[in-house]
Design a protein that fits this description.
This protein is an alpha/beta fold. The chain has helices at residues 7-17, 33-50, 66-78, 91-101, 163-176, 196-206, 221-230, 240-253, 271-275, 408-416, 452-460, 489-498, and strands at 22-26, 29-32, 58-60, 82-83, 106-108, 117-118, 143-148, 158-162, 184-187, 209-212, 235-238, 261-264, 285-292, 296-302, 317-318, 323-327, 338-345, 362-363, 374-383, 389-394, 398-401, 404-407, 421-431, 435-444, 471-474. The strands form five sheets. The protein has a nine-stranded mixed beta sheet with strand order 2-1-10-9-11-12-13-14-15, sandwiched between helices. Strands 6-5-3-4-7-8 form a six-stranded mixed beta sheet, with helices on both faces. It is globular, with a radius of gyration of 23 Å.
Length: 499
């Protein structure tokens, strides 16, 4: 891994080396490194004026755009930490998050009820403003990004990432993938999502081009296919939905020949989606990436395409500097094959949440490396005889049905293996007798292509009786999705509970 360089310093160096090189592509507009650096400098001046004391974070209220990217870079260049939450959160929880983070002011590139100071990095400063200055010096343990978790169990948790953690991550990313001049990286995730540490911020640190996908058109297969072909994208990272959409578009518009690397992230790739990829991406290498907001990337697995590809994909080998163990039911680390909760420690992880107690989530382990703080991932992992690791599902999705422990994610994976199923979500609802009852919401690939009886039999042949959903709800509309493209099981559960 190369020596860590702060993100703002790395970006500034790339802008000085190749100011005319393309940095961002957005809605048919190309922004060069020199132009983006100038925008970031203007944002920096506004940040320093709005928050003259660097000790406390500023809040950002942004939607994906070049101006939003410039504002983030401006905060980094000013040495200010910043809370970057999802723009889809309602005003009340957003206000609470800004307060919990201790934000002195909320900044945004557009007028908004929550924005205290409008910062427009595209507008030239009166009188030309001050000339370029080197980024503020920062210490490795200074906070930079404050990201948030998905908030699936209430108000999102605030995840501070140090300048050193981000620098180490961008250094690793540049070693692992070609992100430098000549590369073109598709950014599908919202800017607040941790995946952007690779496809936006690491790319800008190494001199590549970031092709920003508009979240408002994130489900348009034709639009996404056009971005990849029109800008000769070489690396694509995303959730399964992205690859499913690109596969669908390629059936009409043709294969995607420029991508050299595909990175699967966010959720386990269904077998059905994997099976459709080879003819769509004839020249790409495939990687399964495992990580979370708290730790960032932890494991990476390159898929061997010389033989059959089966799901679930292994999570692969730990990245340099990553420590891990699997805690069994007794809390002790496994010494051989088995399953339990995966604990990880990475060079890129947060030291703990900023707004909730986290003593149980971040702690040393009696069987771990002395002095190392491990993060309890909440993922159930299996250590196989050959030493490989696979993730079976979330502990959050492990429920008891008539005394039998069932993973709703595993039931979903079974349904998604059926060739006539396009989408599936399985949620557990309280039941006074069984403890929980499983409800499956299924969207067939074509109307009438599969029925409830067929799916019930299909599940019964592949899972224990308790894991067969009690109710199969067939729908014609796409399942609800979160801003990051994952199936929004909470919305489904809440709607069913309200009935």
């Amino acid at each position: 891994m190369t020596a860590p360089v702060p993100l703002a310093a790395a970006f500034t160096a790339r802008a000085a080396e190749r100011p005319s090189a393309p940095a961002l592509v957005w809605e048919g507009r190309t922004i060069g490194y020199g132009e983006l650096h100038a925008m970031a400098c203007r944002a920096r001046a506004a940040v320093e004026a709005a928050a003259p004391r660097p000790g406390r974070p500023v809040g950002l209220r942004v939607r994906k755009s070049p101006e939003a990217v410039a504002l983030v870079l401006g905060c980094l260049m000013a040495g200010r930490s910043f809370l970057l939450p999802s723009h889809e959160l309602p005003d009340l929880p957003l206000k609470e998050l800004y307060e919990q983070a201790g934000c002195t002011v909320v900044l945004g590139p557009a007028d908004d009820p929550l924005v205290d100071v409008v910062v427009d990095p595209s507008a030239a400063a009166p009188g030309g403003g001050r000339g370029p200055r080197p980024p503020a010096e920062v210490a490795g343990d200074d906070t930079g990004f404050l990201l948030t978790t998905s908030g699936s169990t209430g108000l999102p948790k605030i995840v501070p990432l140090s300048q050193g953690a981000v620098a180490r991550f961008t250094g690793w990313a540049g070693d692992a993938f070609p992100l430098g001049p000549g590369s073109s990286v598709l950014n599908y995730a919202p800017l607040n999502f941790d995946l952007c540490l690779l496809d936006v911020w690491s790319t800008l640190a190494h001199g590549g081009t970031v092709v920003l996908a508009d979240p408002e058109r994130g489900t348009s297969a034709r639009y996404l296919h056009g971005l990849v072909t029109g800008h000769r994208v070489t690396l694509i990272q995303g959730v399964p939905l992205l690859f499913e959409l690109l596969t669908r578009a390629a059936a009409e518009a043709g294969p995607l020949t420029t991508p050299e690397h595909l990175v699967f992230a966010g959720e386990a790739m269904p077998a059905r989606v994997l099976a459709g990829l080879p003819p769509v991406f004839p020249h790409a290498r495939w990687f399964n990436n495992y990580g979370c907001t708290e730790t960032n990337n932890s494991f990476l697995h390159e898929v061997d395409r010389t033989g059959p590809v089966t799901a679930p994909l292994p999570i692969g080998r730990p990245l340099p500097g990553v420590r891990w163990l699997i805690a069994g039911d007794d809390g002790r680390a496994l010494t051989g094959p088995g399953q339990g909760e995966l604990l990880v420690s990475t060079p890129f992880q947060t030291a703990g949440y900023a707004n909730v107690p986290d003593g149980r989530k971040f702690a040393p382990h009696q069987d771990g490396v002395p002095g190392v703080v491990y993060y309890r991932s909440g993922d159930v992992a299996r250590l196989h005889e050959d030493g490989s690791l696979s993730v079976l599902g979330r502990t959050d999705y492990m429920v008891k049905v008539r005394g039998t422990q069932v993973s709703t994610q595993h039931v979903e994976s079974i349904l998604l293996e059926h060739p006539a199923v396009a989408e599936a979500a399985v949620v557990a609802l309280p039941d006074p007798v069984a403890g929980h009852r499983l409800h499956a919401r299924v969207r067939p690939a074509a109307p009438g292509s599969v029925n409830v009886l067929t799916l019930r039999r299909y599940c019964a042949e592949r899972a224990v009786r308790a894991a067969v959903p009690q109710v199969f709800e067939m729908v014609s509309e796409p399942l609800p999705r979160t801003s990051t493209g994952k199936v929004d099981r909470n919305r489904i559960r809440d709607a069913l509970s309200a009935e």
